[in-house]
């Protein structure tokens, strides 16, 4: 029996895996609508491009923009009160270093709020 994934997961979806990816995209979109839309703003795009030009290497490991993709990171996360456009609160990190830093912040936040709170 051939399964019809479209009937199971909605129009345009072909498999449960695709459905999971769509759910993740919707989660990311709702997060953006919840106050993180600054990353799509012209002001953020200009500032982050300028920082990556001025500092074309990861502040943590030293990899250059020729070796890896670089991102602009908020030293003090926005949810912890960091200023989104203050240059002293921004640093350039490669994706692996940024992910490591974000994971450590998430774990520290979970320890501070073991009941699942986010503040």
Automatic annotation (TrEMBL):
An example Gene Ontology molecular-function term: zinc ion binding
Transmembrane feature ranges: none
SMART domains xref list: HNHc (SM00507)
Domain of life: Bacteria
HNH nuclease domain residues: 45-99
Keywords: Endonuclease, Hydrolase, Nuclease
Entry's family note: Belongs to the HNH nuclease family.
Name used for this protein in its record: Putative HNH nuclease YajD
UniProt source species: Shimia aestuarii
């Amino acid at each position: 029996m051939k399964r019809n994934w479209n009937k199971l997961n909605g129009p345009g979806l072909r498999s449960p895996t695709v459905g999971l990816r769509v759910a993740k995209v919707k989660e990311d979109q709702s997060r953006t609508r919840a106050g993180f839309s600054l990353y799509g703003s012209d002001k953020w795009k200009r500032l982050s491009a300028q920082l990556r030009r001025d500092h074309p290497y990861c502040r943590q490991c030293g990899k250059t923009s020729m070796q890896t993709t670089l991102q602009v990171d908020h030293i003090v996360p926005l949810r912890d009160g960091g200023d989104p456009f203050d240059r002293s609160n921004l640093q350039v990190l490669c994706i692996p270093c940024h992910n490591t830093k974000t994971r450590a912040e998430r774990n520290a936040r979970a320890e501070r709020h073991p009941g699942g709170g986010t503040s």
